[in-house]
Design goal:
With 346 residues, the chain is α/β, with parallel strands linked by helices. It folds into two domains: 47-165 and 286-313, Rossmann fold, CATH 3.40.50; 169-283 and 317-345, 3-Layer(aba) Sandwich (Rossmann fold). It is built from 14 helices and 13 strands. The protein has a six-stranded parallel beta sheet with strand order 2-1-3-4-5-11, with helices on both faces. Strands 7-6-8-9 form a four-stranded parallel beta sheet. Helix 3 (63-78) packs across helix 12 and helix 4 packs across helix 5 (121-130). The radius of gyration is 30 Å and the shape is globular.
Length: 346
């Protein structure tokens, strides 16, 4: 072969090679069924695909309910489920609005969450009305049976289980008598439309009679009525009892302002309200209650059925006192009570 012909042939081969390489680059779509492997998913997508989808529905923002939520997530993390890794958390707060609450519940059911945490009775009722399939863990619910969430405390028989925050009401009223021994009448402020509050007030009346105390009711239906309800008790009672009522506790600053002004000591249904300025309580720790609920959730994630898991309650009760509030109310805390207290806020 002549030298010129050889060079020409080599040039043609090189051009063909470059053309074929260009066609094989990622610019065009590969035909379907070509047997080519799909691009691997990113690590984030893989993580999301494996993550447990958790929906948290909360009726309103206030310290006790927030503490329960934090305790729940802490228990899940301790059990190997951490947000951003293998846990997707969709937290929604209805801010006390019932229609918003129902919309959140409906959305969670449509999203087919793997697990739902319902904080407080209204949240639990709204969620249970939307799904009978997704496991629902409840906390800060006073009476799950009265709310028709479960068939019994021992054997729920539904897709709902969790923890109750039923107060030791008798012990709390005894504490009221210890802190305000001169009290004969006390007021109770509560939302008359909340099932959990109706249950508590019924028990309050029963226990008060046995302790020689008279109950003066101050019912409300919305948070903007709480201050007026508190004012209605001025001159009629020597103390005020605030149960674990979502509406009232979310507006506790208004109650305390009126009560301090008129030197009417406030006894609370839970410790976070004492942290806010109430005189004292004997009751549960909502962070620990949330942790307890989270531990139950871990069991559900391992395969246990909610319908077979008894509703649990917190066994360890704490006496929490507020020394600063005692001064504001003009109350002297007995020394023997101080010794028994789990915590004294100075």
């Amino acid at each position: 072969m002549k030298k010129g012909s050889w060079l020409l042939s080599l040039l043609v081969v090189l051009m063909l090679a470059l053309l074929l390489a260009g066609c094989g680059s990622g610019g065009g779509k590969q035909p379907s069924g070509s047997g080519a492997q799909s691009q691997p998913q990113s690590s984030e997508t893989k993580s999301d695909a494996k993550a447990v989808k958790l929906g948290i529905i909360q009726i309103v923002e206030h310290p006790a309910l927030d503490a329960a939520r934090k305790g729940f997530l802490a228990a899940l993390k301790a059990g190997g489920y951490e947000e951003g890794k293998n846990l997707q958390v969709d937290f929604q707060n209805a801010q006390g609005d019932q229609s918003t609450l129902q919309n959140i519940a409906r959305k969670f059911a449509q999203d087919k969450k793997n697990l739902i945490l319902a904080i407080a009775t209204p949240s639990a009722m709204a969620m249970a009305n939307e799904t009978q399939d997704i496991p629902i863990l409840i906390t800060a619910v006073t009476d799950p049976v009265a709310a028709k969430l479960v068939k019994s405390m021992e054997k729920p028989g539904t897709n709902v289980t969790g923890t109750t925050d039923m107060n030791p009401i008798k012990e709390q009223l005894e504490l009221l008598k210890q802190l305000v021994p001169s009290a004969k009448k006390f007021g109770v402020i509560y939302n008359s439309s909340e099932v959990n509050s109706q249950v508590q007030v019924k028990i309050v009346k029963q226990e008060a009679a046995g302790l020689g105390l008279t109950v003066v009711e101050a019912p409300v239906t919305a948070s903007n009525e709480v201050v007026q309800a508190t004012q209605s008790l001025v001159g009629r009672v020597e103390a005020i009892y605030v149960p674990t009522d979502n509406t009232v506790v979310s507006s506790i600053s208004g109650v305390l302002q009126v009560a301090e002004q008129h030197k009417i000591p406030v006894i609370a249904g839970e410790s976070n309200t004492v942290e806010s300025g109430a005189l004292g309580t004997i009751g549960i720790d909502y962070y620990k209650l949330g942790q307890q609920t989270g531990q139950m959730a871990l069991r559900v994630l391992k395969g246990e059925k909610p319908q077979d898991m008894p509703i649990e309650k917190q066994k360890d009760l704490d006496i929490v006192l507020n020394a600063k509030a005692a001064k504001a109310f003009g109350v002297t805390i007995p020394e023997d009570l101080k010794k028994k207290a789990s915590k004294i806020i100075e």
